[in-house]
Amino acid sequence: MMDRSQVIDACGRYWNPTAATFFHVTHRTIESHAEGCTVVDEEGRRYLDFACSYGVFVIGHCNPYVRRRVLEQMDRLASAPFGVANPVAAELMEVVTDMLPGGLNRVFFANSGAESSEMALRAALACNAPRRKVIAAINSYHGKTLGALNILGQQGHRSPFLPLMAEVEFVPYGDIEAMRRAVGDGVAAVFLEPILGGPFITVPPPGYLKEVESLCRRTQSLLVVDEVQTGFGRAGKMFAIEYDGVEPDIMLLSKGITGGHAAIALAVMQDSVVERLERIEGLPPRYLSSDSGGSPYACAAALASIEFIRDNQLPERAAFLGQRLRSGLERMARKYPKLILDVPGTGLMTGLRVRNPAVETAITMALGKRGVHVGHSMNETAPHPVLRFYPPLTVTEAEIDQSLEALEQALEGLGRIPGRVYDLLDVIVRRQYRIPRKWLLRLSGVKDGHAQAHA
Ligand SMILES: Cc1ncc(COP(=O)(O)O)c(C=O)c1O
C-alpha cells in the first residue's frame, strides 16, 4: 500500500499538481478507514467528520446494516443492464414513490446528481417544446456535466465552456418578484434547490417555493426541484419540499439515498410529464435511461439506507440536533463578529458564513489540527463562503459538543489576528494557483522528500 507521500505525489502526477502541492503544504492526512461519524487517518489519528462529502454520509460511514445488505446483494447479483427488470430496482421505485407526494410516480435511474439534472433538462425541453427558456437561481448547483452546466448558476464553472444554452436566465434565489418577471407568460422549466446549497446556504422565505409552484402551474412551466443535497433528512425533514408542501413536476434525488454506500441518482417525474413524453414521436422514455443507473447493488444500498433513515427517524433527529449545533455556532458568531457573519441553514445543513475565503481556510486548518473535518469550499468561489458543518445525521450530542469545543479553541487563536491580515491573506489565497510550487513548499517548511523531488 502507498504511504501518505506516495499517495499525494500520485495525485500530483496523475491528476492535479497544484492540489498535490497544497496537500503537502497543509500536511493533509490520508483517510484510511471510517466508522459512524469518525474518520481515521493513515497514522491512526481520529477526526470527527462534519464535512461528509458535502452531505453524502447521512447514515454515518460504513453503516453495518447497509453494508450487510449491499454485500448480500453483491453475492446474488451485483449489476444488470438497465431494462432487465430486477426486483431490488422495482422495490426501490415503489418505496421512493410512496414517500413522495401525489403523482410523482415515474422513476428514471442515473449514477450521479449531474446526470439526473441532465435527464430532467432533456425531459423538460422535450415536454414543453417549442419552449426553450429555462430559469435557474444565481449561485445554484446542479452538477458539472455539460448539460447540467447550462443551469448551474455559478459563473466560474460555466465561463470556460461558453457559449452554453442561450435561453437560460438566472434569478436571485428566494426573490419571488424576480421569478415572476423571469417566468413571464411561461418557460419550459424552473430548476430550484429547495434550500440553496454550496457555500451560499440560503433558506428561502416561507411560501417562496409554493409561489413558484403556483407560477409554474399558471404558465404550464415545469417545476424541477433538486433535492440531491437536501433529500433524506439533512434539512430536518425527509424532503425539504415538505416545508412549503409543494409537489414538483420532477424531483432529483441522490447523495443521502444510499448514504454514500453506492452511487445512484433518481429523476422522479409526475405521471403527467411522462405521459406527455410518451406522446412525442421518436422519444421513448427509455431514452432517458443510463446503463448502469439503478444497478441492483446500488438499489440495495438505497433500500437499506432508506429503511435505516426511517427506522431511526433521522430527519427528526437532524431537526433536533441541528438546533444544538446552530445555537453553538451562533454563540461563536456573536463572540467573533470580525470573522463570522452569520449561521445560515436549517437542520444539520448549516455552517459559518465567514469574512472571506482566507478565514474559511484558517478555520478549516485549525479545526483539522483539533480533529474535526468541515466542508471547506473547494470548487466554488464566494466572497463570504459558508464553511459547512454537515455531520452524519447519526451524530451524537457529545460529538456536536466536541466539535463546538474544538471550534471555540480554534477561534480563540484566530480571533486575536487583526481582520486586515485575513484580507491580505485572502489576496494570496485567491492567487494560490499562480504561486510557484517551490515557494509554497519553502514557505510552509515542508521537508518531504517526495514533494521536494517533484518540486
Ligand atoms: C443540489 C445538488 N445538485 C446536484 C449535484 C451534483 O451531484 P453529483 O456531484 O453527484 O453530480 C450536487 C452535488 O453536490 C448538489 O448538491
Physical arrangement of strands within the biggest beta sheet: 4-10-9-8-7-5-6
Distance between the termini: 23 Å
> Which segments are poorly predicted (pLDDT under 50) over 5 or more consecutive residues?
449-455
CATH topology of the largest domain: Aspartate Aminotransferase, domain 2
Helix content: 40-55%
Which ligands are bound? pyridoxal-5'-phosphate
Silhouette: globular
Would you write up a description of this structure?
The chain is α/β, with parallel strands linked by helices and 455 residues long. 43% of the residues lie in helices and 15% in strands. The chain contains 18 helices and 15 strands. It has a seven-stranded mixed sheet with strand order 4-10-9-8-7-5-6, sandwiched between helices. It has a four-stranded mixed sheet with strand order 1-2-3-14. Helix 4 runs antiparallel to helix 12. The longest helix is centred in the C-terminal third of the chain and has 22 residues, at 314-335. The site of pyridoxal-5'-phosphate has 14 residues, from helix 6.
Briefly, what is this?
The chain is of the alpha/beta class.
Provide key terms for this protein.
single chain; 455 residues; alpha/beta; Aspartate Aminotransferase, domain 1; Aspartate Aminotransferase, domain 2; 2 domains; seven-stranded mixed β-sheet; four-stranded mixed β-sheet; 18 helices; 15 strands; 43% helix; disordered C terminus; binds pyridoxal-5'-phosphate
